[in-house]
Amino acid sequence: MNNLERIRRIVIEKGENSFGDDAERIYQSTAFRRLAGVTQVITATESGVYHNRLTHSIKVSRMARLIAHRLKEKEKNDKKIRQRIAELGGLDVSVVEAASLAHDIGHPPFGHCGEDELDKLVKEYGYANKSEKEFEELEGFEGNAQSLRVVTKLIPRHTSPDIKGLNLTRATLNALMKYPWLKQSNNKKYGVYRTELKEFEWTRQPENLVENRRTLEAEIMDWADDVAYAFHDFEDFVQAELIDLGEIYSYHSSSKTNGRTPDFVQYIKQHETANNEETLEEAFLAFVELTPFIGPRSKILPRKQKRSNNEVFASLREQYIKFFDVDSNNEDYVSLKSRNDIEVLKKFTEFYVINSRSLQTQQHGYRVVLRYIFEAFFEASEEKKYPENMDDLMKATILPRDFWELYWELYEENESNTENLSDKYIRARVIADCISRMTDQEALVMYGRLSGNAPGSVFDRLR
User: Fold this and answer.
1) If we measure between CA atoms, which residue out of 368, 384, 335, 383 comes closest to residue 447?
2) Which of 336, 376, 426, 445 is deepest in the core (most CB within 10 A)?
3) DSSP letters of 135-200?
4) If you ran DSSP here, which 8-state letter would residue 351 be given?
């Protein structure tokens, strides 16, 4: 099976016979640039220099490349490593880079709270006669599945209507899939909607792929993703003084009663999962040992502290990049201890920032914004259900200008397949497409116009 093969055959352009072109196609897309205006943890419209989805994606790609380069060097010099990588389906640095760049390309405005709200909305409006028990089992909105939909269907790159999306190679599409399965009743995470079943089946054709198992390149991307956001979110909120390293330092050096640190210890204890290697509390105490080198905020000059923090964080990042390996014959490419260390950093951000009242009230407002837009679009799509010609398609409406074009593309796909998607589902899916491609600011502006709170100007150009 040729992993260089693209999902739709076209005349090969100069240079289009390498995986490196996939990364270039992603780099040049509007969908990738949009990520500069999309929330990572706090909204991209916040003042201050914080990570957004674009800077996050770039950092993931850099870390993933470093991991892949390191493994390729080992592959050259070690026969066992060479055999192991071959057993796992091979490894290409450019594939890892491309998948890392695109891994969040389908994420909607306002981060995970936006994802959760769109998931509820698609389930509420896309299905008839659903019971409360069935609700969680329905296919709604999932950022990873949306990323696959964006790169295979929604990005308009080619003039031919038969060539949709970025037309990426099989290897890159496999590397993009953290969760290579459809919605399952016992699993909240999934990487494919029914609308992309044909593309998914084509992608998973290689004989050496095991059902529901990620490729090695997808595993590298996933670990780089974990390390990147664990560290850069932690760094962001230390610099913003929302996480106080001085408190952690005091916990290390005194009676262990300072500030909120004891509450944090209780919080991670509540989120323990049983294992025999190391608890999250033990991982936290190991991290506490580092804080004397970082220093308490109250006893160090700002620039000196920043230099010290950056040096420690850079050293730690390098270590965790090196902790990914394929030496053993099992599928645990990273030790449980290393995963626990990263989990503790995530819990810092979760406890001190995501669970804070200030962010929770803000996120409540963002859910209201997305719900209002979705419901307004859905109502408008019911009023003008079946346009009979191009003139009807182009008539003035509050719907995005390409809504009915996207609707009919999905409707015709459904006609030629056997999925039997309902009209309600198709409209809900396309509305989710239109909202999820907005930046945070675009969503806020659209809400203002539709609600009348900030109607804007007649000269504003809307897409």
Assistant:
1) 368
2) 426
3) HTTS----HHHHHHHIIIIIS---SSTTS-TT--BHHHHHHH-SS-S--BTTBS--S--GGGHHHH
4) I
pLDDT at 414: 80
90-137 pLDDT, tens digit per residue, is 999 999 999 999 999 999 999 999 999 999 999 999 997 776 557 778
d(CA 394, CA 276): 62
Average pLDDT over residues 265-274: 80
Confidence of residue 1 (pLDDT cuts 50, 70, 90): very low
**CA-atom Rg of the chain in angstroms:** 23
In the predicted model, is pLDDT for residue 278 greater than 70? Answer: no
| CA proximity to 175, closest of 124, 99, 108, 242 | 99
| Both tokens assigned to 35 | 């990520």
Cα distance between residue 306 and residue 304, in whole Å: 5
Residue length of the chain = 463
Q: Which residues contact 180 (CB under 8 A, 6 or more apart)?
A: 174, 191, 192, 200, 204, 212, 213, 214, 218
Q: Residue 38's closest CA among 26, 59, 53, 56? A: 53
Domain ranges of the chain: 243-355
In the chain, the percentage of residues whose pLDDT exceeds 90 is 47
Lowest mean per-residue pLDDT among 26-40, 297-311, 444-458: 297-311
> What pLDDT is recorded for position 148?
97
